[in-house]
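Quick note —
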Amino acid sequence: MPTGFVSAVNYVASYFDSLFPSNVFVTIDVGYGEVQGRTLPSNALGASLPAANGIAGNGFLESYSSVRNALVAQNAPGANTLPASAPAGAPANLLMTQAEAKALGLTFGGGLDGYVGFSAVPNIFSYGINVTPPSNEYYFVGVVEHEFSEIMGRISGLNLSNAHTPMDLFRYAGAGARQFTTGANSYFSIDGGQTSLDSWNNFQTGNSGDLGDWAPSAGNDALNDNSRPGVINAFSSTDITLMNAIGWSNRPPLQVMLAPGSNSGVPGGTITDVTTPVIVGTGLVGATIFLFVDGGASKSTTVAADGTWSIALGPLSFGGHSLVATEAASGTSVLPVSLTLTIADTIGNAGDYFNLGNSGQTVFVRGGTGQLQAWEFAGGQAVGAAGFTNAGAAFNVDAATTVVGGGQDFFNLGGPGERAVFLRSGSGQLQAWEFDSLNQATRAAGFTNAGAAFTIDAATATVGGGEDFFGLGIGERTVFLRAGSGQLQAWEFNSANQATGAAGFTDAGAAFTIDSATSVIGGGQDFFGLGFGQHTAFLRTGNGQLQAWEFNGLNQATGAAGFTNVGAAFTVDSATTIVGGGQDYFGLGAGERTVFMRAGNGQLEAWEFNRLNQATGAAAFSGAIDTATTVVGAGEDVLGSGQRDIFARDGSGQLFLWQFNASHQLTGYAALKDANGAAIVIDTATTVAGAAIDPASGLHEIALVDGSGNAVWWDFNGTSLINPHGGVSAFAMTSFSDQGQASTSTDAGAGSASNASADATASQSGASVADADSAGTFTLSHAVVSTLQSDLPGTSATEIGLLYETLLHHAPFRPVWRPLRPRSWPAPA
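Predicted structure written out below.
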């Protein structure tokens, strides 16, 4: 590494630290001859690659209103020109780097903010500070300033699909006319386009650098699209104004928020049951903070040396309170910052109750009249609210009742927006109340056990529910509990809400425990194919990773998987539920298993994993399913059409067959009917274990296995082709028993003297394929039945993106990751 390299980098870091004295730590990985391990392009003096949450190339997607409010609070240059809602032509969410999100107070996380790298070509740089370089060398300090400022958010998103950055809000084509396209000249302005401070680069009109750089007309500037040798490319006053405009204030921003110890357990929330809350914030060191409550007398304090301040209030009455903070310092002023604080009788917390897919946190409140209310927060903002009703009147709870969980369509009603709230009464009884999208009560249960109320202690919370986990049949539903010790438990209840099954799960002889951020999003099937009596619980951890844990009849852990995709954890958002799994849907071979998911918008998805739990295949199917529908079999080509079929059970129990082409588009479906034309109805414990075609008779043979391991073959005629309005009718039915032992039965539609080799399939693995003899009799060994009984809901979209390799979490609030391409600063050709 050349002499002067490190000292020049440290100089820029120190200079920026003094120039932008915000309370933000920016961490950048600096490379010599490489950026994030990648060799620099041959013509690049430097390159940058932002990072977010430890993932290179990722950034934050923040709502326009959040960005605007943060810039206005900073009194940033040009902030007063930003309209209340996103300007015409701009999306509702803005892409930014993690470092910029920190500067705006939209995230407070640590970790690496990005990578920069600089050319290792000998004698290409002059490392002197504020010294004009030789005519054939480039001013290294200016290149460092260029790349550092990109990590800090000086980037444009206009070259990406429907992506704008905060900096793009100050790109104008004329007075009052923002320029959000890349094919015309544009300039930087902070007064609504009245004044041009510099022209933006535009590669479609001949410039070769990034859209966030200045055009060549800017002269010898560190942020120019191309560096010039033999000159000092300075960090100009316009460059400083630009950084100020995107959130890097020359003074710390004035911020006001509820202290973590006063926020009733919802990070960033503004509802608390603490009547003497502490208000905290940041400001200019030594400045005086005045905090006004409801327009009355103020309390004041001085900003400490670390840039923070705090003021204790109270006691405050129940209800909403308006807080306004102002900052006073010699010769300076900033705009006041407001906060609406609600003092309420909070009675519980839950995760993403409204299933927005944003990993939000919900606080449940008992209003002044006793009405149950819910407020969801994400990124410090309220994103969902409900005042619950029952039979047209307010749904009230008494002062002794608490909320211990919620969010699932527990009763499997299938309607849009169906969600349950789990309550613990004053006596300790567990109750479930389900509400529709209008927050009206649609179903209720007071659970019992052995004729008495089923009770839980105050430390127990629900972490999932709705599945027939134990495979006991129609009307059976499971509530998953997390005890105060952290142990995961499952209690199953019948249609009369009476306990019918229970499990306290263990692992290696000790209690199987989960943390408070983990939830159960599906379960019931033998996902790993370990045999009769095995049940799998699908978990979503606090960071979103999908896991599968299998338990035997003694509730002991027998298998586990932490799924991955392209070397990273495979994650799902908080609105996604698991609706089936275990089959090798894509037909990729031994050890392959598929997880079927329902996204928040109802879309059915399939992800296949190998023996190492690595993603090997994915599909996003056309159409949507409701919260009561589950996948009970998949992968077979029942009609011999060359397409893969999926068997599904709707909320009423009716069995359907869906057919998809290679592009995962629905090409037909059928409601399966018996010989009398009546719908075939199965319970929640029954699965489709296999399917085959009798080549002699053309009959389609489907094997159904119930929760006890008993199986039946249904033979369907081959004349009714699957189509959007048709049905497939049963021709004959034969029962056989398979509970882990070899079984013999006669298949009425398979074997004959002339067709002694008709196949009968009862396992996705292919290990249980038997040949019928001349009498039509076949013998099966143990049949592996892998399917999920899960009826959990969700309301946030999940999209498959970035070619084949990444599952993006798309929601209107952070965290949402979007790719940011590596940016290089080329030397002139």
